[in-house]
Amino acid sequence: MGFFAEYELVVVGAGHAGCEAAIAAANMGIKTLIVTMNLDGIAALSCNPNIGGTGKGHLVREIDALGGYMALNIDKVYLQSRILNISKGPAVHSLRVQADKVRYHEEMKKKLENTKNLTLRQMEVTDIIIADGEVKGIVVRDGRKIKADAVVIATGTYLGGKVFIGSIVYSSGPDGRFPSNILSENLKNHGITLRRLKTGTPARVHRDSLDLDKMEVQHGDEQITPFSFMNDEEDIKRKQLDCYLTHTNRRLHDFIRDNMEKSALYGGLIEGTGPRYCPSIEDKVKRFPDRDDHQVFIEPESESTKEMYVQGMSTSMPEYIQEQMYKMINGMENCKIMRPGYAIEYDAIFGTDLRSTLESKNIKNLFFAGQINGSSGYEEAACQGLIAGINAARNIKGEAPFTIKRDEGYIGVLIDDLVTKISYEPYRMMTARAEYRLSLRQDNADLRLTKKGYDIGLASEKRYERMKHREEIFKEATEELKKYVLTPKEETNEILQKFTAKIKTATSLHDILKRPEVSIFTLLEHFPIKTELSRELMLLVETEIKYEGYIKKTKERIEKHQKEEDRVLGDNFDYDSVKGLKKEALQKLKQIRPETLAQASRISGVSPSDINVLIIHMELEKRHKREQ
Ligand SMILES: Cc1cc2nc3c(=O)[nH]c(=O)nc-3n(C[C@H](O)[C@H](O)[C@H](O)COP(=O)(O)OP(=O)(O)OC[C@H]3O[C@@H](n4cnc5c(N)ncnc54)[C@H](O)[C@@H]3O)c2cc1C
Q1: Confidence (pTM)
Q2: CB-based burial of residue 102 (10 Å sphere; 0-12 exposed, 13-18 middle, 19+ buried)?
Q3: In what order do the strands lie in the sheet with 195-201?
Q4: Atom of ligand 1 nearest to the CA of 157
Q5: What was the pLDDT predicted at 272?
Q6: Whose CA is nearest to atom 13 of ligand 1?
């Protein structure tokens, strides 16, 4: 079997998943090839020009904490930065930044070109080579073969890509790039089950054709929070661009209702299922008929273009209808469409065919990452790429699997949901999905994960030292606040009464800070401590002290579940020999083959009583083995 080249790892796709997979594996010393069908499409932000947001910002911070690259890339090219949900609890505080999508692509391409052990090529992969249940390499368009010990497939929305604009339907990837049809067919020929999913995007309009004065300006935050723990605010501070808020209206909703059948989605042309949490404007008009308006955000795409992204107006209506629709929005009466909105349908696998390492359960050393696994979003794709790249590298080195548990990170929640739950719509991360979210905040991602990234040789020494330093300062400050005790002297109470109630007995600053009305900034302004704290570390100390009780309870819950998380079931568990399992549970357990008892308990259709039956069976098996 002649190969014209040989690599340890081949990553198919240079989207958000592929880039993280390739950079991680190369940084772990693996000779890696990353291929894409178009070098100009590397890390393309095909939809919204922003990174982060609720739940997604947590993923980006965790990628960074482990030694991934997305956060460092976006800190270089952001246009506007905001912390969302700041008025709510710290568990849902989420960084969201507008990206210069042109520069995001350029910086990521530069990174791929300048990473040691990494080769970047433009070529189309048409098949994978499998022998004895193991991947052996890839085949490219001209039939040549490349040998590889492991392969990561991260083909995004290109696999079997089909674009819809009203009744216009054509085979294509996003942004007019060509689709990946041959690989799709060959994956099916290898017995890999594919299904159709769909997503959509709004039109891009010319900035000068908008009347922005009619809209509400959205400024960025004054104080910038970097996405990467390797950056301080002053490293990345810049003049920010504005976004603008306007709204749809009843007239537009009626117009859409009158033309609903012209939309590819409601005209019955699209078979794939779309993301519930990124609905098209047609979906919103249909689902919320009584709403008078929906928010529309106008966002800059890049400093080097006049194209503006119309967030909230994703559509698959015909272009001539889109022309009329957008002009009905306040401030867009004269808008000029530069690119039409469209829907795209593509092939994806079932995440339940994968392990928590994102390796296929059926083909050794074949990994899948990103949109192809049934997720939606740059951040969701990137974190999967990171985990797939790490595990491909560890498999090649003969090292143990690397996973993130649900109680360690949002990455763990996302992957566990993908590999245990059969979902028929693209999966978008949200804070509500993380049962331990109070402990999995974006501000402590490095304290939770950097040591794990460092121990596997991915997070750098510098990153590890920086985390240790933050950890020490955090502990020092917390200790100092405990030891700094105020006595109920008159002058002390005079100060306290400026922002809280006076004290009657000796009270530490730590306990005063527990009072909901007390902010650490005000407290330390009046009662400064020796430990020097950055603004972000101050917020971390405040959160850990104010939510100490809840965080403690969360830790107890985690410990309680740990036993089940560690009880391995494994590939060859004989569910047919377990007496008392309900029929549906038996069918689901045999189909999904969960790795642990805890995973089994999260499969829909497997009830707590089924889990008890399993535990009894496992105990009897253990006793039987002991007696033999
Ligand atoms: C129209 C549209 C609307 C979207 N809307 C949303 C949204 O509303 N919300 C949201 O969260 N996300 C949305 N997204 C999704 C977001 O863009 C993706 O989640 C993200 O890009 C997925 O990253 P990925 O790495 O999996 O794949 P992609 O970024 O799609 O990258 C795939 C890569 O694989 C390469 N490739 C594919 N096939 C081959 C092959 N055979 N050989 C070689 N290379 C190959 C491509 O060239 C590309 O480099 C949308 C995407 C599109 C296209």
Answers
A1: 0.96
A2: middle
A3: 168-171, 162-165, 342-348, 195-201
A4: 30
A5: 83
A6: 377
